[in-house]
Amino acid sequence: MAKNHHNSHELFQKAIKLIPGGVNSPVRACKSVGTIPAFIHHADGCMIVDMDGNAYIDYVGSWGPMILGHRHPAVMEAIRRVLERGTSFGAPTDLETELAQLVVDAVPSIEMVRMVNSGTEATMSAIRLARGVTGRDLIIKFDGCYHGHADALLVSAGSGVATLAISGSPGIPDAVASQTLSLIYNDSDGFVKIMDRMGEKVAAVIVEPVAGNMGMVPPVAGFLETLRSETTRCGSLLIFDEVMTGFRVAHGGAQVLYNISPDLTTLGKIIGGGLPVGAYGGKRDIMAQIAPQGPVYQAGTLSGNPLAMAAGIATLEQIKQPGFYEALNAVSEMLIDGLEAAIRRTGIKARAGRVGSMAGLFFTDKTVRNFDDAKTADLTLFSAYYRGMLEQGIYLAPSQFEALFISAAHGKTHIAETVRAAEAVFQGLAA
Ligand code: KE4
């Protein structure tokens, strides 16, 4: 029986009168998949429940933070405990140092770290720091990679920009946009050619070490190594944007998985356990340039917020337990194996893949290595798949250019149900 979305419809009609597009982040509007957003009432474990009482198996996980699943007891207890002390002080607390230590212990390239309130703030600050440290202006990013909505980075971006086919955005001065070059992801030769020509002007190269904002696209062999060697050769900084991959694809992030040591790393999502947190960190001599220790200014009223720190600490304490990633990756493998079997059985034109518990499904039979490849995906087919899966009780990111996230709360029964639903939807689409 078709799900009832009456309350979500009513709430959306109210929201669009007061909030642009009715949402506080564009991709949530579900415009590209032809539906209105389900307004959520609550979530628990791997399940999310909307305002009409419809329950779904959740593969968005708040776009990555909920690696433990929703309302994990340790996270909820940590927030309750700190709540008794207050909500915000605008002064240092022991909690910030505790989370900083957990990050430094886990991420090999980070010796010092600064907390901010979002991934955008983290990448914006890392870019400013790289420009301040090198005295150079030019930034290199890659088409389809999304690093938040700071002016310098909102060019040829992925995620919502790709979903909404916004090429950059009005409001970004040419003078700013011209200082950012966007190259082809996984194109090592093209990158070397640019660095040969202008490497000495490049302040930083920022990359998603596993792309998650053009759909999930892993680095091809040698790509990250080339970024590392060329930036070292040219005196530019290499920034790994691990807002999505950090503590997701491995405990130490993609830099551990691929054994690359960036100069700066940006983090977010998981380190906040669902509360607003971002962070940037790196070698001591670089981070020492940040105010008030150094001259590069960056600040934030709610940076290091005690509740957010508590949620992050509780989350990182859980995921550092022995066996956490092995178990999470085993369940993730089950999902991909199941989807691939369903694709074979139904003959639907689609490709599934994963890095750790960050997964992707492209509606194309082409191997996807960059944004142009990703754009060969059949968006009409994806939209029908999205709507079909929602009706089957599976909650996915409403865009072909996003990733799926599996949490520790996803069990074998949830995966089996997801694969069953996908096969049923594929059958209908392939017919
Ligand atoms: P926030 O400013 O949204 O916290 O983080 C920006 C960001 C930076 N870097 C990477 C690699 C990211 O994936 C993100 C944000 N991710 C998107 C999901 N694709 C957030 C979802 C949204 O925009 O609502």
Tags for this entry?
431 residues; alpha/beta; Aspartate Aminotransferase, domain 2; 2 domains; 4-stranded mixed beta sheet; 14 strands; 39% helix; globular; binds ligand KE4
Mean pLDDT: 96
How many β strands by DSSP?
14
Class based on secondary structure composition and strand pairing: alpha/beta
Radius of gyration: 21 Å
CATH topology of the largest domain: Aspartate Aminotransferase, domain 2
CATH architecture of the largest domain: 3-Layer(aba) Sandwich
Q: Which word captures the global form?
A: globular
Question: Approximately what portion of the residues adopt beta-strand conformation?
Answer: 5-15%
Provide the helix percentage.
25-40%
